[in-house]
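Re: that chain you flagged

S.,

Sorry for the slow reply, it's been a week of failed gels. I finally had a moment to sit down with the sequence you sent. For the record, here it is as I used it:
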Amino acid sequence: MKTKSWIIFLGDLAIAYNREVLRGVSHTLESQPELQRYAAFHAEVGELRRLDTRDVAGVLISGLSHPNDTLRRLARCRFPMVDVAGERHRPWLPYCVRADDEAVGHLAADHLLARGFRRFGFLGHAGHIGIALRQKGFTERIGGNGYSVKCFEGSAERIGRRWWPPGMFRWIRTVEKPAAVFCCNDLRASALLMACQQASIGVPEEIALLGVDDDDVYRLLRNPHLSSIQLQTHLIAEKGLAMLLSLSRGEAPPRKCVTVPPGSVIVRASSSMMAVEDVLVRKALTLIHARLSDRVSIKRVAADMGISRPTLEKHFFRALGRSPAAEIRRLQVERATTLLATTDLSMPDVARRSGYSSAQQFSVSFKRCTGAAPTDYRRLHSPRQRRDPGA
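Prediction finished late last night. Pasting the structure tokens below so you have them in one place:
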């Protein structure tokens, strides 16, 4: 049997992002026949010196935090290398494939603005390029809508088994409530959720939380479960691998840095509240949420509240800037995207639970709103579908 050429992956597998990128690399190698002469291998930096360089096609690097002397040794290695995290500028590592972090910030802002929030916070991590770009995208989009963001960065300090930024507890108590806080990742969001619980701050009633990575541990570790933005790690892996193999063949990639747009917002309880002061709108939203899977009717909601439909629409436009019908369509798509990305439900079941009259109506409406057919959306955004296409 012909010897495999190794693709070395350097990155802490305790971090969900790194695990998902490595899974994406493995899936790409297995699914493309022309790449089956390669195999992925996770290694530590110190192990590179002991490898037979003739068997190494290149190295994918994700989120290294080693001492400078270790990184200098890595820089002297003669392997082709591509950064698939883009967290710091390293002159010896010019090739990079990473998430479009400004677009991540825009997506977070749009999600929280759509829920009616008017006060915002950002919880970040100093010294990280990608997180700084998420903050930039978020604050610019919020600012463009006439609001401001109260930011907290802080350094990461390990206490026990969690990362707890010093000062975060004091900061969250000073944020005027109700507010929505965008956290740079799910690890930070989980820490903030714990801080809110210790400070008797209600989530999502007083503080709505949104993270990034849809981490398979932290998203469900505490109640309420965390809403999170999925990153398209499979595309980052695929494009990073293609760039690395170009370098291994002595070819210059068309671009030194490639960005990949984010996936979707997976909505869970931590951002399930709508921040609306209008009592009529709050009551209508409660009814709409409760009846969404039963194909809720605006006429019926208005009748149950004892008001006319034009009155209800007037209140919605004043509170949210959109009609009740537009809000129902938004909620239907939001629920459908979450179900497609996180469950194996059949399309008729997804359609029914999202309030559509049929799978056909669901398919047409979903594609009109998102630009993708439901089956294509699931294939791109469901981690299980990517790992097991036959599932």
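What I noticed first: Residues 5-98+233-260 form a domain with the Rossmann fold fold (CATH 3.40.50.2300).

Talk soon,
D.
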